[in-house]
Amino acid sequence: MSYYITTPIYYVNAEPHLGHAYTTVVADALARFHRLLGEETRFQTGTDEHGEKVMEAAEKAGLPVKEFVDRISAQFRRTWDEMDISYDRYIRTTSPEHVRVVQQVLQKVHDSGDIYYGEYGGLYCYGCETFYLERDLIDGKCPDHQVAPTYIKEENYFFRMSRYQDWLIDYIAAHPQWIRPERYRNEALAFLKEPLEDLCISRPRSRIEWGIPLPFDERYVTYVWFDALLNYLTGLDYPAGEFYPRFWPGVQHFIAKDILKPHGIYWPTMLKAAGVEPFRHLNVHGYWQMPQGKMSKSLGNVVEPGYLAQHYGIDQIRYFFLREMVYGLDAHFSEEALRTRINADLANDLGNLFARSLGMAFKYRKGVVPHPGVPEAADKDVAADAQAMAADFLRLFPELEFPKALARVWEFINHLNRYIVTCAPWELAKDPGKAQRLDTVLYHLLEGLRWLAALLRPVMPGSALKMSEQLGLGLSLWDLPLSQVLKWDRLLPGSLLKKGPPLFPRLEMEEK
RNA sequence: GGCGGUGUAGCUCAGUCGGUUAGAGCAUGCGGCUCAUAUCCGCAGUGUCCGGGGUUCGAAUCCCUGCACCGCCA
Fold first, then answer.
1. Rounded to two decimals, what is the model's pTM?
2. At A292, is the secondary structure helix, strand, or coil?
3. Considering only residues 421-460 of protein chain A, which place a Cβ less than 7 A from any atom of strand B?
4. Per-residue pLDDT tens for A444-479?
């Protein structure tokens, strides 16, 4: 089974914020997870660069459109690089490959009769890029922009989305997990209770130039969503490239709830019309609620991922994202909550466990992994719990149950901390007759840490690597599929540990 | 206006098919340890499970209703 993991391509009319970062980190963690299991994995992100709003944003910035999109797209890419995002491909909708794919699909759907030419007149808001009905207006103005829309009548091309309504309803009904979590599946079904209208997929060039020309009518460019969604096919070099048959339809799309409609309705019907199998899952997540309410520029509470990463550390942010938000639900964001997680979970529990374990190994055994003796009950408990933790983690992670998966890992961390107190190695060290017992305890501790490093790799890649280095793990204990790494007693007695700075420095809570 | 969700400890949340004294983490208080990043371990709590009514031997859980907040659609 192969995994094709995607984030949305982010719209370049605004700079990267917390929400973009969350989607991207989740997708990255899952991609790393599948790679670790030795599964064929491909992960992609990128930017969506056409449409009227982008033109406007460029104008506002006083830049030629191309220059503007280059700049913002690069900014997104830099942010992901700073956050250790392991994308295999970075898609831009202005790239020639993408333009080619969009035109091919349009032509195909046109040829098969699912695109027709028609006339549409209505009240159009340029800000929303949408036609409005009288009843939707507030005081005759667009509800979002407070601007009176203009009546325009124009001829356009329409995609016969309505033709696939029943098919889509049946497909959703037959595949309960297809759109997940369930609340969003229900929302998609709610859309479909009303008759589906055909989708207007063109914009006249007289009005907007910044888009992909329709292959069958040069007077028009493609509607930005029809263009953007196809990036998922471009990323596999559809239709002739080698990736397409390898990775389609094993697709895991990750999106935030605001773009459920395009992904849950437009996209599957587009695929159906183009003769392409549906994706495997659409994974929809919620919003980060800010302390002052919704995140918005006017409130000045937009959080930049780059700032967080620099201030608190990449892995700290990644951990927080996955631990604090139940996938699919909204969650609260605050720097205070972040600091609390960092100190309580990372510095105190995990970081300190790691430091005290290695500290004792150096103090009592000169940094050499000892040979374990015959295990006692407490030791066997540790080994058994490690196995149980791994089993739970491996089950929960692909179900997107990140908080549960991590909480389970932390149960094991607590177990190891308790194990230390119970066995009291500092007492054993005082009695030469208990040398072998001390060896056994230290070995079990270090071996437990090795399992932690292995499992935390998708979540905190940088820290996991530091752990593996300090544990003296060679490539044979690290760069292998998890199934081979996760075997108790694999840590090699006699191998050398390495000292290092604290994995997760404790933050002072007073400072702000 | 229609549909849906949420409401549980000071805070953030878990509570499967209805079944003993309703749970976790953080914060708080007390005790223990000294290997460790003043960390760790143990103990202690505290609750009108949003209000009201109903079904049931038994309701945080099911039904009705009211309130509050949120989302989607129109």
1. 0.92
2. coil
3. 421, 424-426
4. 999 999 999 999 999 999 999 999 999 999 877 788
